[in-house]
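Incident review: delayed structure delivery

Summary: a single-chain prediction request sat in the queue longer than the usual turnaround. Root cause was a stuck worker, restarted by the on-call engineer. No data loss occurred. The affected request and its eventual output are reproduced below so the record is complete for anyone auditing the incident later.

Affected input:
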Amino acid sequence: MKLTKANVARLKLPAGKTEVIHFDDTLRRFGIRVGGKRTWIVQYRAGAQQRRLTLGDVAAMSAETARKEAQRKLAKIDLGHDVQLEKVQAQARQAVTLGSVAGLYLDFHAARRRANTVRETRRYLTQHFAPLSAVPVDKVERKHVAARLGEITAESGATAAARARAALSAMFGWAIREGLATANPVSFTNRPDVPSARDRVLSDSEIAEVWHACRDDDYGRILKLLILTGARRTEVGGMRWDELDTDKALWTLPAERTKNGRVHAVPLSPLALHVLERVPRRDGRDLLFGDGAGPFSGWSKAKAALDKRIAEPMRPWSTHDVRRSVATHMAELGVLPHVIEAALNHVSGHKAGVAGVYNKSKYEREVNAALALWADYVGALVEDRERKVIGIGRRVS
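Output delivered after worker restart:
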């Protein structure tokens, strides 16, 4: 029987049967399966195994269309293709999306990288590339990545786009080595035009302006602590109560929260302790700042609001410029470079290379003195009073 529309309409399921297959008389291996529903099929052998490939539902695919599709499939089969296996593999590849690979990549590195690095990488991959998350990883093309990088640049700036690009490229490199991807679509995309390293240092008057513009809120307290300690914004923004010992006036950053992976103890001046005293404790939350599950966020919005409160508009500056300013002004106060590096937990210069291998001193006494000197200097600036601590050296005018 030739499987035509009229002949198929007359087919019935025999009594006592749950399924029956009728093959076409004119196209060998092409048939129709009659059961709970009716489907077009192709049946063939792949080596010693019998294969059956479903072409489509009879209700959605006409007999003529099914016949043409069966001819195409059978031609591939006769050339040695296992079309059923290829279909299963294609479905498996469809399930391996950029989002699922990103999840595997982040899980793999969660125990191998610092928590801050994993958190930042997660943000780049799952938020910045969210529009591509459902795309099969082998279907992500260079044009998709390039277009998305342009959008990220417009939305979040060139620096964020450059970091997101680096994170995605690293993920694809890992995925290729794991057999999850065959190519890296980030290759040969244009790198976002990131501004050169900044050298902005806030003057004494600008530090005072910023301090006075701070409100008694999370961002205001964070910024004051950044000025007093020279710490990184992620370190202060993610500060936890269990890191603080106010009796000893000490803030101890665990290794997983520092950029260099080393425990860092920060002496707290009376002015810093005063700022911390004003932070309200929240039930069930060990983090000092922020409202959600994680540390403080919303940096750009908070800084923009603070800039509007400054009476005389300042030259453009960033939160990270505060750290550079602290280091620069401490040097001008006579603090030695290796002590500044120790105070800011910055491993370079005096602590890099061979010097860092043999010199394990943390200069705790010198760091205490340097941060006390700096806090007194800041206090004199913002309180318009004379300094109480004698400088280590003569300040450069």
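Verification: The longest helix spans residues 158-177.
Action items: add queue-age alerting; document worker restart procedure.
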